[in-house]
Design brief:
The protein has about 575 residues and is mainly α. It is about 55% helix and about 5% strand. It has three domains: about 300 residues, no CATH class; about 110 residues, no CATH class; about 90 residues. The chain has a five-stranded mixed sheet, covered by helices on one side. Strand 4 and strand 5 form a beta hairpin. Helix 9 packs antiparallel against helix 10. The C terminus is likely disordered.
Length: about 575
């Protein structure tokens, strides 16, 4: 027997969010930061390095299955994200910068993630067990309108999530994994309604997860989805009264078998290509490392800010829908949120693993909307209004201080944190920032109108505020951020010293520096001993104590320490080969 639903929603509350407004909001979130910058440290530049090397490779198809960066394989096995980036570079016109071509393609992946999440939630909300209570005299929300309103709320919750901002705009395997997991989520959610489309999405999601560095997560999600769908099928078989949703033929055994086939094929492919790695890092397991209590506190902080504001709404959903925890619209997002959460805890991937759970957290947050009290919704509105308005004002004030020196304290802080940075006024960036700020003011005025009763209204200000601040940061602050997070200033300093030599020997350089030196400087790097005849040598400070065991120090002269202006931890030591003394007359 079905448990009663906690959702009480009138038809007047499921008014449609204007599509043009939703599309503009998504565009305002996806596009900032795409132009006017290069790859940032550290994962962003490393991923681009592998993509660039693949695009330049002349070693045939075998190299595409074993990407290398100066002989180094990726730390996390991932093929498909590098293939996507390399193909974007190869297919881009000559006038388009390779890194921009990659960012455009990965921006489309983020856009498709939004689309897949919306349709996944729409199909979950259409099921009978997710629908609101039927009123005695009619007037309750119609199923399709209700599902659309819940899906709008989920997309707003995803945009509002703080953890998506930076990682969602990088060209790394993590963003590709987010794209593929969203399609896997949509495929499973849409099975009762879109058999062919759902199977295509399942294939894309399962195979993509297997080849993008997260095959274990994809395997566990596939098996968990099979369990949920099988339980749902048994419930339907045991129930004499079929509702419109449950009677859909896509709940057939063949459909469930399709999920099993996609999962098995993806697993076999991951094993065959060496992508499946079982890596567990138990909390507190490292000798001399942080205690379990410290790790727990750090993980809690990460979880809280990374998933805000979706997490508290998700917890509210689990409480209010606790009688329907095994219903498909709660069980599936709970599975897709729980597996990345466990992965974050038991591996060292940290926030990049947690990123994969954001579509599911946003889904759970959306199902809290029809159960929220008016006072709680008002509290969310006022907190969001104060938080994002204050943050926007701070961004504007610091920008003015950068340009004018007034107020002096913020200007001094910028000069201290980014020594050598010279700010300059950019008219186009200023106009976009001003337009975004005016749009925020209009949105606040709209939201505070008492006549607005839409179901998704509670998440309008969080999504709008997140988009506003991201737009301001990536317009007003973009030159500063690019200077602070790019390796380009450091590489330029190296180029001023060495020019364009035939080769540069490197000792113990990390992947970020190797990728940056090849991208920004186009240097021919050679690891020792292959580079023993190079006129210059770059050494990581970590290797300086053992350098005498690798080279004859009398043959080299230390030129100096080349620093990345905003991070002393990225120092490089530059050595020049000492010219041999001429023979005695």
């Amino acid at each position: 027997m079905n448990q009663p639903t906690p959702a009480i929603v009138a038809q007047s509350a499921v008014r449609r969010l204007p599509r043009i407004a939703l599309l503009l909001l998504c565009a305002a979130y996806v596009m900032p930061g795409m132009l006017g910058r290069g790859p940032w440290k550290s994962a962003d530049i490393v991923a681009f390095g592998y993509m660039s090397e693949l695009a330049k490779s002349t070693e045939g198809i075998a190299r595409w299955f074993d990407p290398l960066l100066l002989g180094l394989r990726p730390e996390t096995p991932a093929l498909l994200p590098y293939w996507i980036g390399a193909l974007a570079i190869k297919l881009a016109p000559a006038w388009l910068n390779p890194d921009l071509a990659v960012r455009i393609v990965f921006g489309l992946l983020l856009w498709c993630t939004f689309t897949a999440t919306w349709y996944a939630v729409y199909n979950l909300a259409r099921t009978a067990r997710a629908q609101p209570v039927a009123f005695a005299f009619g007037g309750e929300a119609r199923p399709t309108d209700y599902a659309r309103a819940i899906a709008d709320g989920a997309l707003l919750a995803l945009i509002a999530t703080l953890g998506l901002a930076q990682l969602g705009h990088e060209t790394t395997p993590a963003l590709a994994q987010l794209f593929f997991i969203s399609y896997l989520f949509y495929g499973v959610a849409a099975l009762p309604y879109r058999r062919n489309g759902a199977f295509v999405a399942l294939a894309i999601g399962s195979l993509g997860m297997a080849l993008s560095g997260a095959p274990t997560v994809g395997l566990v999600l596939g098996l968990g989805s099979l369990g949920i769908l099988t339980a749902e099928r048994r419930r339907i078989d045991a129930n004499d009264s079929y509702d419109e949703a449950d009677a859909e033929p896509s709940y057939s055994r063949a459909a469930i078998g399709g999920v099993a086939v996609a999962t098995v094929v993806a697993c076999a492919l991951a094993i065959g290509l060496g992508q499946l790695q079982w890596k567990i890092d138990l909390p507190g397991g490292q000798p001399g490392g942080p205690s379990t209590a410290v790790e727990l506190r750090n993980q809690f902080r990460l979880l809280l800010w990374f998933t805000w504001p979706a997490l508290p709404l998700s917890l509210w959903t689990l409480w209010r829908w606790r009688r329907q925890l095994m219903a498909r619209h709660v069980a599936l997002p709970l599975l897709f949120a729980g597996v990345p959460l466990l992965t974050t805890w038991f591996t060292d991937f940290s926030d990049r693993s947690l990123l994969l759970g954001l579509p599911a957290f946003a889904t759970l947050a959306a199902f809290a909307l029809p159960t929220l009290r008016r006072s709680v919704a008002a509290l969310i509105d006022w907190f969001t209004l104060l938080f994002f308005s204050g943050l926007a004002i701070a961004i504007w004030v610091i920008w003015v201080a950068m340009l004018t020196g007034v107020p002096p304290k913020p200007a001094a802080n910028v000069a201290r944190l980014a020594p050598g940075f010279v700010p300059h006024f950019q008219a186009v960036a200023f106009l976009f920032a001003l337009a975004a700020t005016l749009a925020w003011g209009w949105l606040v005025r709209w939201r505070t109108g008492r006549h607005r009763a839409a179901l998704w209204k509670t998440l309008v200000l969080p999504a709008g505020g997140a988009s506003l601040c991201w737009m301001l940061l990536l317009t007003l602050w973009l030159p500063l951020l690019d200077y602070a997070r790019s390796y380009a200033p450091q590489v330029r300093a190296i180029a001023e010293k060495v020019g364009q030599p035939s080769c540069i020997a490197e000792v113990a350089l990390g992947r970020p520096h190797i990728a940056a030196l090849r991208m920004h400087g186009n240097f021919n790097l050679m690891p020792l001993p292959a580079g023993k005849t190079c006129p210059w040598m770059l050494v990581s400070p970590d290797a300086i104590t053992g350098l005498h065991n690798i080279v004859r120090l009398d043959d080299w002269r230390l030129i100096g320490t080349l620093r990345r202006p905003s991070s002393p931890n990225d120092d490089l030591l530059l050595f020049q080969r000492v010219a041999a003394a001429p023979p005695a007359g």
